[in-house]
Amino acid sequence: MARALVPLWAICMLRVALATVYFQEEFLDGEHWRNRWVQSTNDSRFGHFRLSSGKFYGHKEKDKGLQTTQNGRFYAISARFKPFSNKGKTLVIQYTVKHEQKMDCGGGYIKVFPADIDQKNLNGKSQYYIMFGPDICGFDIKKVHVILHFKNQYHENKKPIRCKVDGFTHLYTLILRPDLSYDVKIDGQSIESGSIEYDWNLTSLKKETSPAESKDWEQTKDNKAQDWEKHFLDASASKQSDWNGELDGDWPAPMLQKPPYQDGLKPEGIHKDIWLHHKMKNTNYLTQYDLSEFENIGAIGLELWQVRSGTIFDNFLITDDEEYADNFGKATWGETKGPEREMDAIQAKEEMKKAREEEEEELLSGKINGHEHYFNQFHRRNEL
Which residues form a coiled coil (predicted)? Predict the structure, then answer.
């Protein structure tokens, strides 16, 4: 019986249906965004946001996002969504940021908060789960922050990740997987990846071995070494007829070969650290440390400082599906990135043309004034 072929579009639709989208914001409904986003009133000096696509854009409406408007200010704003836990699931956080003002010093990062965050009092001391995105200040700081909250402390990725520093819109993506791997992407391209356990220096923060675990290790060490060596015994060998178990003890069966080293385990025993590592791996021991698991995710926001304003934040997404995030990025930033650069190039040419015309006018005006000055001096000399 022939099997019916499933159309590719149906597979794609099924994939989208299986994805869980926790939060998605494109600011396509005008000023209604103010019903979803809450401006913090913790400090009256906090800067304000407006909805704007900037001075140049790929699409005037689709490229509208939250834009900082005041120089030398702190900013604090957030949006709430239905709380969820990413335990056992992939977590993808994605958004676009455009430093139209050619950022000299300021943040372009986002924060993911617990559901119990006090939005009206959001400030620099508010607890967050994840901080992710670019931070620029002078010539020294041009980095992508990836900070995770773990054991009541904030831990930053030890690998230096460089951010984009131009004035165009860029797509930033963070992927945290349940196998403790991660990926940081800019404009859809992976720029850093690895192990959450090691790239955040979290291995030293695991709980110390308890007395019960030490006793368990001693017993396991002996049993494991004995079981391991049994694999190298000569099963066809038989005990000598004159062997007396009461007098001679247990009969040592001959080995086919000497047990080799295996995964760092020696025939005479097992190194304690190796055993603990295997135990943690085999029993999902690492997951109890919540290295990348957050039980009550419920808000996303911007809490940052900028010397010069003008940054635009857009296309926010939190999901559990990497493919959905990739497609969303292509459908938003991917569609407008080219036209945005084209508009910027056209504006640059127009500005250059205008500057040349103004310069020519100044030169022409200077020549005319010079001729008039010479003419007046000539006539004054004749009159004398």
Answer: 342-369
